[in-house]
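Researcher: Please predict.
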Amino acid sequence: MTDLPRDAPRATVLHADLDAFYASVEQRDDPRLRGRPVAVGGGVVLAASYEAKRRGVRTAMSGRQARSLCPGLIVVRPRFDAYVEASRAVFDLFRATTPRVQGVSIDEAFLDVAGLHRIDVPPVQIAARLRGQVLEQVGLPITVGVARTPFLAKVASRVAKPDGLLLVDPDAEDAFLHPLPIELLWGVGEVTANRLRGYGLCTAGDVAALSVDALRGILGPHAGSHLFAVVHGRTPERVVTDRSRRSVGAQRALGRGPHDAAFVESALLGLVDRVCRRMRAAHLVARTVVLRLRFGDYTRATRSRSFAHATSSGADLAATAVALLDGAAPLARERGLTLVGVALTGLQSDAWVQPRLALDGPDETGLDAALDAVHERFGSASLARASLLRRGEGLAVPLLPDREDDE
């Protein structure tokens, strides 16, 4: 292997992004769905397979609109436990590749392989090997972009999707970036893109031709300076692996209502159980419970409540989440609830936690530990709240025949 000069720029950052993650897991687990347009969700599309995307189905689209665009669309209920398990298996492969992994979400991460240049193959070959491992061992397609910076690697993976691999050579960054439409630039959303297009700026090259002062005038000081750095390849080169986790959360689309209050509460409690297990598995405790709601008119609301001391108690966190939901009930009835979510924030290590005193009520940490142990040994679907089971699921206890008392 030929060494480059020490100061030569290297493409050593990988952005690995699972393709249509939720939908791909469903197609992996049900052969009948493979090659067919699939949407995960109900009232709102949470994810769409590429067969559905090619017909115009997009995330956050209403189920009704998705079906009108794609009459043969197959809609499946989300199975978040299956997605979490698949994500863990993929992240295990990431960490087996390099210790320098920065998770971005449940289905994507940056990998820094700069430290492997003397003991492994070149980065693009590492990326190709990783793609093969994810497909063979987890059964999911994944796209990888390889570049000098996380930003360029992210854009490369966007261009290479689906199920692709793309290397951006450090000597050809402008040639790669400047012809791209502005919507492919990481951080350029719909509002920013429309504003730029209003000035006749359609590609990254169009933006790069402007001065930083001109961009600041169009987008404002911060956004203008950031976009100027983006189109000129001046974004940070470091993969951040030492940032503490700020929150853990989950959400569930409910579909169009009206929904029974008991059903919504059960859905919320299922989410609380899930995020509490994830938090305790990471040896963390939380100070704040955040409730997130989305309504039929696509507006959103957030409610939160903090504890005096951080906790990992599933009972306390669940009770707080339900209290927040009860407080938002009038708004939910008025607007129609379509999505409920919960997040635990103010996270810190559980190494130093004030134990609950007996006068504060029973200590339920033993129950939490027992439930976590069952899930760890038998899988995330081994235990669930009875209120979350659909008709016909779970165990049925036969009724014993009536018996007359002996005289």
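Model: Residues 272 and 318 are 6 Å apart (CA to CA).
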